[in-house]
Amino acid sequence: MEKNSVISPAAGARDSNTTSALLSACKQSRAEVVKLILGHGVLINLVNDKKEFALFCASAAGYSEIVNLLLENETQVDMQNKYGELALMVASCNGHAEVVKILVENGAQVNLQDADKCFALIKASYS
Fold it and tell me: Domain range for residue 93?
Protein backbone atom coordinates (compact mmCIF):
# COMPACT_ATOMS: atom_id res chain seq x y z
CA MET A 1 0.00 0.00 0.00
CA GLU A 2 1.34 3.43 -0.88
CA LYS A 3 2.42 5.85 1.83
CA ASN A 4 -0.11 8.46 0.76
CA SER A 5 -3.04 6.05 0.60
CA VAL A 6 -6.29 7.44 1.88
CA ILE A 7 -8.66 5.42 3.98
CA SER A 8 -12.23 6.46 3.58
CA PRO A 9 -14.25 7.41 6.65
CA ALA A 10 -16.28 4.39 5.60
CA ALA A 11 -13.43 2.08 6.64
CA GLY A 12 -15.66 0.95 9.47
CA ALA A 13 -18.56 0.31 7.10
CA ARG A 14 -19.86 -3.21 6.71
CA ASP A 15 -20.93 -5.28 3.73
CA SER A 16 -24.22 -7.17 3.43
CA ASN A 17 -22.87 -9.81 5.83
CA THR A 18 -21.89 -7.11 8.32
CA THR A 19 -18.22 -7.83 7.71
CA SER A 20 -16.07 -4.78 8.35
CA ALA A 21 -12.94 -3.76 6.46
CA LEU A 22 -10.97 -4.48 9.64
CA LEU A 23 -12.32 -8.01 9.89
CA SER A 24 -11.60 -8.67 6.21
CA ALA A 25 -8.02 -7.38 6.55
CA CYS A 26 -7.48 -9.57 9.63
CA LYS A 27 -8.77 -12.67 7.85
CA GLN A 28 -6.41 -12.02 4.93
CA SER A 29 -3.29 -11.32 7.04
CA ARG A 30 -3.04 -7.76 5.74
CA ALA A 31 -1.11 -6.17 8.62
CA GLU A 32 -0.41 -2.89 6.78
CA VAL A 33 -4.11 -2.48 6.00
CA VAL A 34 -4.99 -3.27 9.62
CA LYS A 35 -2.55 -0.55 10.77
CA LEU A 36 -4.13 1.99 8.43
CA ILE A 37 -7.66 1.13 9.46
CA LEU A 38 -6.84 1.22 13.18
CA GLY A 39 -5.25 4.63 12.68
CA HIS A 40 -8.63 5.98 11.64
CA GLY A 41 -10.46 5.21 14.85
CA VAL A 42 -12.50 2.27 13.61
CA LEU A 43 -14.37 0.41 16.34
CA ILE A 44 -12.04 -2.48 16.99
CA ASN A 45 -14.51 -4.88 18.62
CA LEU A 46 -17.19 -4.90 15.92
CA VAL A 47 -18.72 -8.30 15.23
CA ASN A 48 -20.36 -9.58 12.07
CA ASP A 49 -23.58 -11.57 11.82
CA LYS A 50 -21.66 -14.73 12.78
CA LYS A 51 -20.29 -12.93 15.84
CA GLU A 52 -16.79 -13.09 14.39
CA PHE A 53 -14.43 -10.32 15.40
CA ALA A 54 -10.95 -9.22 14.40
CA LEU A 55 -8.95 -10.76 17.27
CA PHE A 56 -10.74 -14.09 16.93
CA CYS A 57 -10.05 -14.34 13.19
CA ALA A 58 -6.40 -13.29 13.47
CA SER A 59 -5.84 -15.71 16.37
CA ALA A 60 -7.52 -18.60 14.56
CA ALA A 61 -5.21 -18.12 11.60
CA GLY A 62 -2.08 -17.60 13.70
CA TYR A 63 -1.40 -14.05 12.49
CA SER A 64 0.72 -12.96 15.46
CA GLU A 65 1.63 -9.56 13.99
CA ILE A 66 -2.05 -8.67 13.61
CA VAL A 67 -2.89 -10.07 17.06
CA ASN A 68 -0.25 -7.75 18.52
CA LEU A 69 -1.60 -4.77 16.56
CA LEU A 70 -5.12 -5.39 17.81
CA LEU A 71 -3.99 -5.80 21.41
CA GLU A 72 -1.89 -2.63 21.21
CA ASN A 73 -5.08 -0.85 20.15
CA GLU A 74 -7.00 -2.14 23.17
CA THR A 75 -9.17 -4.84 21.67
CA GLN A 76 -11.05 -6.93 24.23
CA VAL A 77 -8.92 -10.03 24.73
CA ASP A 78 -11.73 -12.22 26.11
CA MET A 79 -14.57 -11.54 23.67
CA GLN A 80 -16.54 -14.65 22.72
CA ASN A 81 -18.09 -15.71 19.41
CA LYS A 82 -21.61 -17.12 19.06
CA TYR A 83 -20.39 -20.47 20.45
CA GLY A 84 -18.72 -18.85 23.42
CA GLU A 85 -15.27 -19.50 21.97
CA LEU A 86 -12.40 -17.15 22.72
CA ALA A 87 -9.41 -16.10 20.64
CA LEU A 88 -7.27 -18.09 23.09
CA MET A 89 -9.28 -21.23 22.40
CA VAL A 90 -9.02 -21.10 18.61
CA ALA A 91 -5.33 -20.22 18.72
CA SER A 92 -4.58 -23.15 21.03
CA CYS A 93 -6.83 -25.54 19.10
CA ASN A 94 -5.09 -24.61 15.84
CA GLY A 95 -1.62 -25.03 17.33
CA HIS A 96 -0.58 -21.36 17.21
CA ALA A 97 1.68 -21.35 20.27
CA GLU A 98 3.10 -17.88 19.60
CA VAL A 99 -0.40 -16.38 19.47
CA VAL A 100 -1.41 -18.26 22.63
CA LYS A 101 1.61 -16.81 24.41
CA ILE A 102 0.79 -13.28 23.21
CA LEU A 103 -2.83 -13.57 24.32
CA VAL A 104 -1.95 -14.92 27.78
CA GLU A 105 0.71 -12.23 28.26
CA ASN A 106 -1.98 -9.68 27.46
CA GLY A 107 -4.45 -10.92 30.03
CA ALA A 108 -6.44 -13.67 28.29
CA GLN A 109 -8.21 -15.69 30.96
CA VAL A 110 -7.22 -19.35 30.67
CA ASN A 111 -10.11 -20.58 32.82
CA LEU A 112 -13.01 -19.21 30.78
CA GLN A 113 -15.30 -21.78 29.19
CA ASP A 114 -17.15 -21.88 25.89
CA ALA A 115 -20.83 -22.84 25.46
CA ASP A 116 -19.88 -26.53 25.76
CA LYS A 117 -18.04 -25.87 29.05
CA CYS A 118 -14.62 -26.51 27.46
CA PHE A 119 -11.46 -24.66 28.42
CA ALA A 120 -8.68 -23.56 26.06
CA LEU A 121 -6.43 -26.40 27.28
CA ILE A 122 -9.10 -28.96 26.49
CA LYS A 123 -9.57 -27.42 23.03
CA ALA A 124 -5.81 -27.63 22.46
CA SER A 125 -5.87 -31.36 23.18
CA TYR A 126 -8.36 -31.87 20.31
CA SER A 127 -5.81 -30.92 17.68
Answer: 9-126
